[in-house]
Design a protein that fits this description.
It is built from 15 helices and four strands. The protein has about 280 residues and is of the alpha+beta class.
Length: about 280
């Protein structure tokens, strides 16, 4: 892993004189290596509001200080059309905050003043060291397994964030789960087990977002308990335990607490449940 991070650090930075990266690949590598999110400014030389943001916002000392928490990337609207299409950029300035693999956490179209820009930058100045290994492996080789591992990491990460940050993090968790589903091959031997796990993790996202009716509908579906017990019983038990606590059902709490205690990794699930209760 150390050699991988070192390789990322040695990649060309391709920086502007004012410390904006101009190449997405280089910015992504730097983001993984430094445990930062990427701050992207879609702009053009002819754009009046872009020039105003350069003058009023990006050149401000306080803004530049908080920008140290990000990898700044500037994308030329006229020459990098593929990125415009990929991120649905119809007008500029268009500011995006994304993770090291390009998943969007926040975006805004149009001029924003220093105060509003500072508020956003302060809000999202996250340290992604908890995710570093999974971010690096996914970037090196996207697959259902690397996407799945990263989604699980983001789920755990979300429990340590304030409520207003949890939702955008869970949104990109869903993106990684969707990618894992797309990359999953129906012909592979473990397809049923992984597909089941993906369904459980999507429901886990609903749980963390407070979509309790969706969780309850999922848990009431007819299930193959034998298959669950072989591969994904821990996730299923965790979901049932959390819903029993949410609904205050003492008999169900007792039942699913007993099931949790039987798991080899029961401490992990109990920690997740505790963090969820404390931050809900």
């Amino acid at each position: 892993m150390k050699s991988l991070i070192l390789l990322l650090l040695l990649c060309g930075s391709n920086l502007f004189a004012n410390n904006w990266y101009t190449d997405l690949e280089a910015a992504q590598n730097a983001a993984i290596a430094s445990n930062k999110l990427i701050l992207v400014d879609f702009w053009a030389t002819w754009c009046g509001p872009c020039k105003a943001m350069d003058r009023d916002v990006w050149s401000d000392q306080e803004i530049q200080e908080v920008m140290q928490n990000y990898i700044p990337l500037r994308v030329d609207f006229d020459t990098q059309r593929q990125l415009n299409m990929e991120y649905g950029v119809k007008g500029i300035p268009y500011v995006v905050i994304m993770d090291a693999n390009g998943k969007v956490i926040h975006n805004n179209l149009g001029y924003t003043n220093k105060l509003e820009t500072m508020r956003v930058l302060e809000k999202f100045k996250l340290n992604t060291s908890f995710l570093q290994v999974e971010l690096a492996y996914y970037k090196r080789k996207p697959s259902y397994s690397t996407a799945l591992r990263l989604a699980q990491k983001y789920l755990d990460y979300s429990l340590y964030l304030d409520k207003d940050l949890r939702r955008p993090i869970l949104n990109i968790t869903e993106e990684y789960l969707n990618e894992a589903q797309d990359l999953l091959d129906e012909k592979q031997s473990n397809y049923k087990m992984i597909s089941q796990k993906l369904d459980l993790l999507v429901t886990n996202v609903d749980l963390y977002q407070g979509n309790y009716r969706k969780v309850e509908r999922f848990l009431k579906k007819k299930i193959d308990e034998e298959e669950l017990r072989k591969y994904n019983w821990g996730l299923y038990t965790f979901l049932n335990y959390c819903m029993a606590v949410e609904n205050g059902e003492e008999a169900q709490i007792s039942k699913w607490t007993e099931e949790l205690e039987k798991l080899n990794n029961s401490d992990i699930y109990k920690t997740r449940a505790k963090n969820l209760q404390e931050t809900s």
